[in-house]
Design brief:
The complex is a heterodimer of chains A (570) and B (183). With 570 residues, chain A is of the alpha/beta class. Chain A is 39% helix and 18% strand. The chains are: A alpha/beta (570), B alpha+beta (183).
């Protein structure tokens, strides 16, 4: 059947299972928008193209399906760059469709022309420039296949205006992906399994490092079986939270820069690290020269380019984590590690007394209170928390206990401020039956708060908790520790967030005391529309413990003990 | 040490940029890169030399495979292989120096490809050492201009990349109508 490029675009998206796209129209993509009226796909109009990419990303992370963002050429396309880089570093499958000037005009600096395939080349898994309608179906099928297979990632398809307008014969079956060099399905050698098993069975102090790859691969059950069968405790990366139930006795908690002290000590004392779908980011290793020196390392990872990148490993099993574990599990023998687990337990006692939750109530509202109360209130619901970047993100990781995968969505690798609000919109669209909470700082919120309008236009029930400390808190914390408290450019003069939300027609309230937290959270949950709560928290609170950038993992800045804290307050 | 990679890529627009961009982004330093056609019109072949250690060489290989358009990567550093560089050297050759320059060229089995009143242009093919050697002895006469292609390399014997299963898939490569093949 003869169709225009624009019609082919939407039909291919439908055939790829796309129900929603997040986009913003403009000149070079108008033919595609004109053809949207014949499609069942629901288009969500965003307020900025960066928002569209974060929404597609949030949609992908909440559902495991490919998220789609659409923009026009030039500034529309360049506005997507931050969102694409965010998806790239966190291996999130999104497809970005951009309009491009007519193929005859390419290279002429035409109005709103930009070389978006050139710009996004290093931050996409792959990208395409399509100049003919008859290439479009094959390219789109390849784009979705590349985005979701192997180690997922963003794919951009730039379509010239004439390719959208011109017609050609459309044959979905014939337009098969042709990717002779693409190898997403590697698997380890038999000898590598044997080496891994030998290390696992010999180990006295093993530790599983659980990463995002577990969630992407859907290997939660296999990891649980492995940990229980071999008696191995589990430490998680930020993006791994939810991959292993927080309440499980073998779950130690988060590792790394703001990980629990006992977790970082355990890593340094382990004799075997079993790294599952994680990439030894500098935020989890600290100084590589002193990182886990006594430990043998097994790395199970889908991307061969991650092997020996930061940490030299003894055995690497390259392949889909779930498939590899399925092969490995029947051959893993049960081992007793009681002594090792007891020694980790001893380390926990020290941290417990320093916990802000245990401090006597001094009338101040701490972010940890808000987040912990929020967790207690929503723990039995199917809740998705979407966090931004900074102090609140780390407190959330520490004080909100994630039992299930895809219950936390956050920008880990790129650390993109402004991610949370749009990503939450994507998550809510993907999972309308889940309760969605945005936890965001007052700084990051103001980067993308224009998407409040998108929430209202789409009538989405999203709950927004601003952790408002009047500072760019994490930067302020670095200034406190490393720049002699020179708070240069970190204090924020904020708008009245309650009035701001009301201007969008969003119900809003401010909270200044701990006693108000639970009633306000309950009122927000009971309200049937979007709600914004402005939690005015302690201004100069600090995330503890902290491994300074480049320091050894066991060299942590700890929260002063409670006795010292009380004395300081008086 | 100098690692030699033979990289087969799809003959499509922008692929050279993708490879070059990868080396820049990952801070791998290219010593030389050559690219040209192969016996299959849909496949281009690159020879890339990089001064690096064995661990990093493995990462380069893995990163190259992560490019969707890369078909096959071979590190032939430790394989029996032929590596050749081609140079054209324009030497200032006045009347009295001319016969000396011609003699040197013949010792190195180089060919004179252009003769002008004030200069000679010599073409030489060989390993990098051989070309460096000729350049060294010609320098006193005055090297006016020089160009080198960079190394192209091929495994010795009957083993060829087409025996590899990854390579047999190449006929599926799509022809992109109406787009220039600038690689």
């Amino acid at each position: 059947m003869t169709k225009t490029g624009a019609q082919i675009l939407w039909e291919c998206l439908e055939r790829e299972g796309v129900k929603h796209v997040f986009g913003y129209p403009g000149g070079a993509i108008l033919p595609a928008y004109d053809a949207l009226k014949h499609s069942d796909i629901h288009h969500i109009l965003v307020r900025h193209e960066q928002g569209a990419t974060h929404m597609a990303d949030g949609y992908a992370r909440a559902s495991g399906e490919v998220g789609v963002a659409v923009a026009t050429s030039g500034p529309g396309a360049t506005n997507m760059v931050t969102g694409i880089a965010t998806a790239m570093l966190d291996s999130s499958p999104i497809v970005c469709i951009t309009g491009q000037v007519g193929s005859k005009l390419i290279g002429s600096d035409a109005f709103q022309e930009t070389d978006i395939t050139g710009i996004t080349l290093p931050i996409t898994k792959h990208n395409y420039l399509v100049t003919h309608a008859d290439q479009l179906a094959r390219v789109l099928r390849e784009a979705f296949y590349v985005a979701r297979s192997g180690r997922p990632g963003p794919v951009l398809v730039d379509i010239t205006k004439d390719a959208q307008q011109s017609s050609c014969e459309f044959d979905w079956e014939a337009a098969r992906p042709q990717l002779p060099g693409y190898r997403p399905d590697l698997s380890p050698e038999e000898s590598e399994y044997a080496q891994a098993l030998e290390l696992i069975h010999k180990s006295k102090r093993p530790l599983i490092l659980a990463g995002h790859g577990i969630i992407v691969s859907g290997a939660m059950a296999e990891v649980l079986t492995l940990a229980e069968k071999a008696g191995i405790p589990v430490a998680l990366t930020l993006l791994g939270l939810g991959a292993f139930p927080a309440s499980h006795p073998l779950n130690l908690g988060m590792m790394g820069m703001h990980g629990e002290a006992w977790v970082n000590h355990a890593i340094q004392e382990a004799d075997l690290l079993l790294a599952l779908g994680m990439r030894f980011d500098d935020r989890v290793t600290g100084n590589l020269k002193t990182y886990a020196q006594d430990a043998k390392k097994i790395h199970i990872e889908i991307d061969p380019a991650e092997i020996n990148k930061n940490v030299k490993v003894d055995v690497a099993l390259v392949g889909d984590l779930r498939e590899v574990l399925k092969e490995l599990l029947p051959r893993v023998e049960s081992v007793d590690h009681t002594e090792w687990l007891d020694s980790i337990d001893k380390l926990k006692g020290d941290s417990a007394v320093r916990d802000v939750q245990k401090l006597p109530d001094n009338g101040h509202l701490y972010a940890a209170h808000v987040i912990n109360d929020l967790w207690r209130e929503t723990r039995n619901s199917n809740t998705v928390v979407v966090t931004d970047v900074g102090q609140h993100q780390m407190w959330e990781a520490q004080y909100f206990k994630h039992e299930k995968p895809r219950s936390l969505i956050t920008s880990g690798g790129l650390g993109t401020m402004g991610f949370a609000l749009p990503a939450a919109i994507g998550a809510k669209v993907a999972r309308p039956d889940s309760e969605v909470w945005v936890i965001v700082g007052d700084g990051g919120f103001q980067m993308t708060m224009s998407e409040l309008a998108t929430i209202q236009q789409e009538k989405l029930k999203i709950n927004i908790a601003i952790i408002n400390n009047g500072f760019l808190g994490m930067v302020r914390q670095w200034q406190e520790f490393f720049y002699e408290r020179n708070y240069e450019a970190t204090p924020l003069l904020n708008p009245n967030f309650v009035k701001l939300a009301e201007a969008y027609g969003i119900r809003s309230m401010a909270v200044t005391e701990r006693s108000q937290v639970l009633p306000t959270v309950r009122a927000a949950r009971d309200h049937d529309g979007a709600v914004l709560i402005d939690f005015k928290v302690e201004q100069e609170d600090t995330v503890y413990p902290m491994v300074a950038a480049g320091a050894s993992l066991n060299d942590m800045i700890r929260r002063p003990s409670p006795i010292v804290e009380t004395a300081a307050d008086e | 040490m100098l690692n030699i990679f033979v990289v087969y890529v799809e003959n499509k627009p922008g692929v050279l940029t993708r490879v070059a961009s990868l080396f820049r982004r990952r801070a791998f330093n290219i010593d030389s890169l050559t690219v040209g056609r192969t016996e299959k019109p849909e496949v281009s072949r690159m020879t890339i030399t990089v001064d690096t250690n064995p661990d990093q060489a493995k990462r380069i290989e893995a990163n190259l495979y992560n490019l969707v358009n890369v078909l096959l990567v071979e590190n032939i550093t430790h394989e029996p292989a032929i590596a050749r560089d081609l140079a054209m050297i324009k030497v200032a050759a006045t009347h009295e120096a001319r016969s000396h320059v011609l003699e040197l060229a013949s010792v190195f089995r180089a060919r004179v490809v252009d003769v002008a009143p004030e200069s000679l242009t010599i073409e030489i093919t060989g390993g990098e050492d051989k070309i460096d050697g000729l350049l060294e002895v010609l320098r006193p006469y005055g090297v006016v201009e020089m160009v080198r292609t960079g190394i192209v390399a091929m495994r010795r014997g009957t083993t060829s990349a087409s025996a590899n299963p990854a390579q047999t898939k190449t006929p599926e490569v799509a022809a992109d109508e109406g787009v220039s093949y600038s690689v």
